[in-house]
Amino acid sequence: MAPADIRHLVHRRPFTPFRIVTSDGTIYEVRHPNLVMTGLASVILGYPSEQDPESYSRWDVVSLRHIVRLEPEEEAIAES
């Protein structure tokens, strides 16, 4: 996955939540643009804090090589 693909969804206005699906089947829900930081080879995905949903309480680092699909929320809902 290219970093620009993720940045495109993060910076879309209005922001629409989306899913990141990885090669091992893990699904990450991205609910707020402040919780995503894209690098050249990986993306940092924050988990929202209970006290402040725009700040993270913990995070995962995901290799861009292992991201197989990005699902904007409207597509993710249609598949359910």
Secondary structure layout:
Layout: H1 3-10, E1 18-22, E2 27-30, E3 36-38, E4 42-48, E5 56-63, E6 67-72, H2 73-79
Detailed description of the structure:
With 80 residues, the protein is an alpha+beta fold. It has a single domain (3-74), classed as Roll (SH3 type barrels), CATH 2.30.30. 19% of the residues lie in helices and 41% in strands. The protein is built from two helices and six strands; from the N terminus they run αββββββα. It has helices spanning 3-10, 73-79; strands at 18-22, 27-30, 36-38, 42-48, 56-63, 67-72. Strands 2-1-6 form a three-stranded antiparallel β-sheet. A hairpin with a 4-residue loop joins strand 1 and strand 2 (27-30). It starts with a helix and ends with a helix. The mean pLDDT is 91.
Q: How much is the radius of gyration in Å?
A: 12 Å
Record field, number of beta strands: 6
The H/E string reads HEEEEEEH
- CATH fold-level assignment: SH3 type barrels
- The shape, in one word, is globular
Largest sheet: 3 strands, antiparallel
Poorly predicted ranges (pLDDT <50, ≥5 residues)?
none
* Overall CATH architecture: Roll
How much helix is in the residues?
A: 10-25%
Mean pLDDT: 91
Q: Classify the beta-strand content into a percent band.
A: 35-45%
Give the helix/strand class: alpha+beta
Distance between the termini: 24 Å
Please give the CATH class: Mainly Beta
Helix tally equals 2
Query: Strand order across the biggest sheet?
Result: 2-1-6
